[in-house]
Design brief:
Layout: H1 8-19, H2 23-36, E1 41-47, E2 53-58, H3 65-71, H4 97-104, E3 106-112, E4 119-125, E5 128-129, E6 133-135, E7 140-146, H5 162-179, E8 184-189, E9 192-197, H6 204-215, H7 217-221, E10 223-230, E11 233-240, E12 245-246, E13 252-256, E14 259-261, H8 264-273, E15 283-284, E16 286-291, E17 297-298, E18 309-310, H9 313-329, H10 338-347, H11 351-354, E19 389-391, E20 412-414, H12 423-426, E21 432-437, E22 441-446, E23 449-454, H13 455-473, E24 478-488, H14 491-499, H15 501-506, E25 510-513, E26 518-525, H16 533-543, H17 553-567, H18 578-590, E27 604-608, H19 609-615
Parallel strand pairs: 1-8, 13-16
Antiparallel strand pairs: 1-2, 2-7, 3-4, 3-7, 4-5, 4-6, 8-9, 10-11, 11-16, 12-15, 13-14, 17-18, 19-20, 20-21, 21-22, 22-23, 23-27, 24-26, 25-26
Helix pairs in contact: 1-4, 2-5, 8-9, 10-19, 13-17, 13-18, 16-17
Length: 619
């Protein structure tokens, strides 16, 4: 077959296969053009997931008739001042977006430059261009795309449902709106009410306001400010609390010099910063803005401009890890407010019909007929807190209705008044311990609310951070067992753990083989106290196969340390004295990352007094 030049229409359709992968990709190119044209207001209309219609109207600089004709030609751009491809200060370009869209859709561009008394319009349908003609429009540009992929119908079968395509398009607009807080956006789709994001100041406060606008007040309220500089690169934005995480990484919004990207270096650095704070199947919510010299990053390595290449990727990774780590470790422990928010919403429900006993068939009003078992005080009687008392409504023979099966308030250690709160403790972030419930949860009182603490999760984080600090400082102190402990295991598990004996020894756990299927434990980390060493060794053996030998030794040691911390912490079900509870609270306030345990779960929940008062209709 002889060589030949391809027709221009076919060339454009081939280019469209790279640039216009789906409606969201075409929309991204058009909105970026509006932003690069200096728009301060952008209106976007989407119908049929973008396949039937995408219309973008802006108040940017606009184009005259000659520029309109040039805009739909391949490799034409206004975004490059010179031939220096490393000095790009716009949202990027390839010079193929508009002709590629016109090659597979019905494209209409209408524009009027500022200062001109007339507008012009050009149309491209399936790659066929019409002459430029006069039109009516205010200052700015309107780009309308109809019947996407009508000229290449085979591409339609690769599109997802209209709902999925609409969601992708909305996500694209969200990312661009986050990148440019100073621009007002209006988004209209066929499946939801119009959304308007007003223009914000281009500073830290405006950035935070736009993040709250786009991602919601809950995301903004559960995030920390981020600010860091390293070797000319600057990182700013918001990083979500570890306890406010998602099941995927779609809520990670990343920007390089104002350009939305999905970069492996950035995503990997975020993962490393949260490694000790989140389980492997959870992802943090972030909106991070990286600014650096344009010559230090190549933005044209991907047709869709979603990937970049850094000249010094190590410096960027170090900047992100250190800045996020510092932000997450700074200040007093703080956990996500979502649980308290849900309680507040619950408090606003109408109790008048939903919760009256007579409103539900078969419901029993135990408050009218409950009789205190012998030896226990009636909770309705005065003087309840004059002496410690336990009310176990789940205990045999203590059901308020003779076995009705109501789970009300089991196992509460009601000794609040026996431990008056010191005024100075009430001012502390985690307050003063007042009681212990179910021998698992500590109830603390602050000046304006209540804190519920999971004693095991909290102490687990404290022990883990101590193990880490000792490892970094001078190694872990060991405690030699007077009588070595023999632990029976499956032979394969014993062999795997024996292979990792050197790593375990760095953490203070000294083991050696003791015949087939058994290990001898001679020394243990002193920090573990009276932990069940047999149970610890068995759990380590179970998880030894999951330790990734490709990970650096430090990361593998931290995995082991996390397991040790779990076994060396205060267990659920242990009765604590008030002094012990307060000591735990004070230590939490001084411990990095104390708002979540090693598995990413919150260690405490704060309930504002106002929310509690709403529960009882006091507000």
């Amino acid at each position: 077959m002889p060589l030949r030049l391809l027709p221009s229409t076919l060339v454009d359709r081939i280019a469209a296969g790279e640039v216009v992968e789906r409606p969201a990709a075409a929309l991204k190119e058009i909105v970026e053009n509006a932003l690069d044209a200096g728009a301060t207001r952008v209106e976007i209309v989407i119908d049929g997931g973008g396949r039937r219609l995408m219309r973008v109207t802006d108040d940017g600089g606009g184009m005259n008739a000659e520029e309109l004709a040039l805009a739909v030609e391949r490799h034409a751009t206004s975004k490059l001042d010179s031939e220096d491809l490393l000095a790009i200060h716009t949202l990027g370009f390839r010079g193929e977006a508009l002709p590629s869209i016109g090659a597979v859709a019905r494209l209409t561009i209408t524009s009027r430059p500022k200062g001109s008394d007339s507008a012009h319009e050009i149309r491209v349908e399936g790659g066929v261009k019409s002459p430029v003609r006069p039109a009516a429009l205010g200052f700015g540009t309107r780009v309308e795309v109809r019947d996407l992929f009508f000229a290449t119908p085979a591409r339609l079968k690769f599109l997802k449902s209209e709902r999925a395509e609409t969601a992708a398009a909305v996500d694209t607009v969200k990312r661009l709106a986050l990148a440019r807080p100073e621009v007002g956006f209006t988004l209209v789709t066929d499946d939801r009410a119009p959304i308007t994001w007003p223009a914000r100041a281009r500073d830290a406060a405006g950035q935070r306001a736009r993040i709250a606008d786009v991602l919601g007040a809950e995301a903004g309220g559960n995030a920390l400010d981020v600010e860091g500089v390293r070797e000319g690169a600057r990182l700013s934005g918001l990083a979500g609390l570890p306890t406010y995480s998602k099941a995927n990484s779609l809520s990670q919004y990343l920007f390089v010099n104002g350009r939305p990207v999905r970069d492996k270096v950035l995503i990997g650095a975020i993962r490393a910063a949260y490694a000790d704070l989140l389980p492997s199947d959870r992802h943090p919510v972030t909106a991070l803005f990286l600014d650096l010299d344009p010559r230090e990053v190549d933005v044209n390595v991907h047709p869709a401009k979603t990937e970049v290449r850094f000249r010094d990727a190590g410096n960027i990774r170090a900047l992100i890890v250190r800045t996020l780590t510092d932000a997450l470790n700074a200040g007093v422990p703080r956990t996500a407010s979502t649980a308290a928010d849900r309680l507040a919403q619950f408090a606003r429900r109408d109790f008048s019909t939903d919760y009256r006993p007579e409103a539900r068939p078969g419901a029993y009003d135990w408050t009218r007929s409950w009789a205190a078992p012998e030896g226990l005080a009636d909770p309705r009687a005065p003087g309840l807190n004059e002496a410690p008392a336990r009310f176990d409504f789940d205990a045999p023979g203590h059901s308020p209705s003779g076995g009705l099966g109501l789970a009300l308030a089991p196992g509460a250690d009601a000794r609040a008044n026996a431990a008056p709160a010191a005024p100075e403790a009430l001012e502390r972030p985690l307050g003063a311990a007042r009681a212990q419930l179910h021998e698992t949860y500590i109830i603390a009182q602050t000046r304006d609310g209540v804190v519920v603490i999971d004693q095991h999760a909290a102490h687990e984080r404290i022990v883990y951070e101590k193990l880490k600090a000792a490892m970094e400082r001078d190694g872990l102190a060991r405690q030699m067992l007077l009588v070595p402990l023999v632990v029976e295991l499956d032979p394969s598990e014993a062999a795997r753990l024996t292979e990792r004996a050197e790593a375990l020894e760095k953490l203070g756990l000294v083991i050696e083989p003791f015949g087939p299927g058994a290990l001898l434990v001679r020394e243990v980390p002193a920090l573990l106290g009276d932990a069940d060493i047999s149970a610890l060794v068995r759990e380590l053996a179970e998880h030894a196969a999951e330790w990734d030998d490709a990970l650096p030794l430090e990361r593998r040691l931290l995995h082991i340390a996390a397991t040790m911390a779990c076994h060396g912490s205060v267990r659920a079900g242990r009765r604590l004295r008030v002094e012990e509870m307060n000591a735990l609270l004070r230590e939490m306030e001084e411990t990095p990352n104390a708002a979540q345990c090693n598995h990413g779960r919150p260690t405490f929940v704060t309930l504002a007094l106002a929310d509690i008062e709403r529960l009882f209709a006091r507000r």
